[in-house]
């Protein structure tokens, strides 16, 4: 609820990494690892901002942020096929009105 993100190992109750205030205090609505690139994850906050984290590029801050201004996004899901190396990775965004918007991610964050 405070925008903190914690990376845990299954064998420990203590986080390996913790990023406080990673969304400028906005609650995290959804978080999902990229299906095609293991070190990348996506975060959606309550203000319809999507943050892209690439831990191989920068493990302190997100590498990109995109604000969805057209309408409030209530959740997201990533689309992709991990067994394929074509670099296609999409984000399905569910909006408050019930509309679904699908956007594709740049290949630099999708390629294995």
TrEMBL record:
<dbReference type="GO" id="GO:0005929">
    <property type="term" value="C:cilium"/>
</dbReference>
<dbReference type="GO" id="GO:0045503">
    <property type="term" value="F:dynein light chain binding"/>
</dbReference>
<protein>
    <submittedName>
        <fullName>WD repeat-containing protein 60</fullName>
    </submittedName>
</protein>
<dbReference type="GO" id="GO:0042073">
    <property type="term" value="P:intraciliary transport"/>
</dbReference>
<dbReference type="GO" id="GO:0045504">
    <property type="term" value="F:dynein heavy chain binding"/>
</dbReference>
<dbReference type="InterPro" id="IPR042505">
    <property type="entry name" value="DYNC2I1"/>
</dbReference>
<dbReference type="InterPro" id="IPR036322">
    <property type="entry name" value="WD40_repeat_dom_sf"/>
</dbReference>
<dbReference type="GO" id="GO:0005868">
    <property type="term" value="C:cytoplasmic dynein complex"/>
</dbReference>
């Amino acid at each position: 609820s405070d925008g903190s993100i914690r990376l845990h190992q299954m064998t420990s109750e203590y986080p390996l990494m913790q990023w406080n205030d990673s969304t400028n205090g906005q609650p995290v609505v959804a978080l999902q690892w990229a299906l095609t690139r293991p070190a990348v994850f996506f975060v959606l906050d309550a203000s319809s901002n999507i943050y892209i984290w690439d831990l191989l590029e920068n493990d302190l801050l997100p590498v990109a942020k995109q604000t969805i201004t057209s309408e409030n996004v209530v959740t997201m899901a990533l689309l992709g096929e991990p067994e394929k190396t074509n670099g296609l990775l999409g984000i399905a965004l569910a909006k408050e009105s019930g509309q679904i918007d699908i956007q594709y991610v740049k290949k630099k964050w999708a390629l294995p």
